[in-house]
Design brief:
The structure is a single chain. With 381 residues, the chain is of the alpha/beta class. It contains 17 helices and 13 strands. α2 packs parallel to α12, α3 packs parallel to α17 and α8 crosses α13. It starts with a helix and ends in a 10-residue tail after the last helix.
Length: 381
Amino acid sequence: MSRELELKELYLGFRDPKTIKAYAKLIEKEAQKLDCDINIMEVCGGHTHTIMKYGLIQLLPKNVKFIHGPGCPVCIMPKERIDHAYILAGQKDMIVVTLGDMIKVPGSFGSLQDARSKGADVRFVYSPADTLKIAEQNPDKTVLFFAIGFETTTPMTAALINQVIQKDIKNILFHINHVTVPEPMRVLLDDETNKIDAFIGPAHVSVISGSRIYGEFVRDYKKPVVVSGFEPVDVIKSVYMLVKQFSQKRCEVKVEYSRSVTHDGNIEAQKLNEKFFEKREHFRWRGIGDIAQSALKLKDEFVYLDAEIIYKDILPSRKIDDHKLCICGDILKGKANPKDCKVFGKACTPSSPLGSCMVSSEGACAAYYKYGEILICNTNI
């Protein structure tokens, strides 16, 4: 059997309808032992899309429910940070480089895509390392890397900084917007109105940080966590692992995504992050608010690379609220469903988003808009 065929069969195995339905039956069996509802928050937007695309909501018993959490780095980016990127894109001889959906997120002046339509040089890349080539090809321009992402992408930014320093590249600057997962999870649980009983932990974040970062939620909050992969079999199996913990009256951190996640994570990546970054005192999460120690910034010794410091006189510090009709904040907190929003699918669509949950491809609103019909008639399983 060829390696290509082996990989194909492995891939299809994680989407096998029979396996998915078998886990659904196991969940139902365990759930029957319970006399309460279980509200499971999937922290990562990638999990939300899997849940919607494969109709996993339909397969669960009525007392097992999903709550969609804040796990999308684009969704939680406040407007004032987007305004920074927009303003910097308008500076003379400036090239702004960023990842994926960030280019479409609207700030108070517009999106980076709008800035580009007005003549700004804005480019999106698949890897931060592509910034080096752009800088090399444009020696007379300042290339600004607008860095976003959770722990998953932080080491890639750190690796880029490392190369910039080693190669003594003079025309690359950084605007750092990396955020970390445990702090918002803690804030959500500290809210007395929260309905969270358990977490499906983010896979790629955990590859870097390890499953050990979730220990506090078991120890201090008595909330079990299962770190899950992104395929439908991964997610449904993770739900089963959580429901079984409840039926057996256990509370533990478990790793379903054991093919990639360890307890300690990627130590070398962690060391690289620690070399260049330190915690910010505060960072405002869109829809959630200020969260202490929840984001990173460049250490003082690298201030000469920090666009926030270099351009501080032109970058606004005011806080900017979302559209009054947008309920992304409640959705990110797990207190509302996208379809609870009055403008969902009407004034707010992927082509004309009012809020970040719709503009991001990993946002909960985008998932409901794209796959919502599956809740009525599921044809994927």
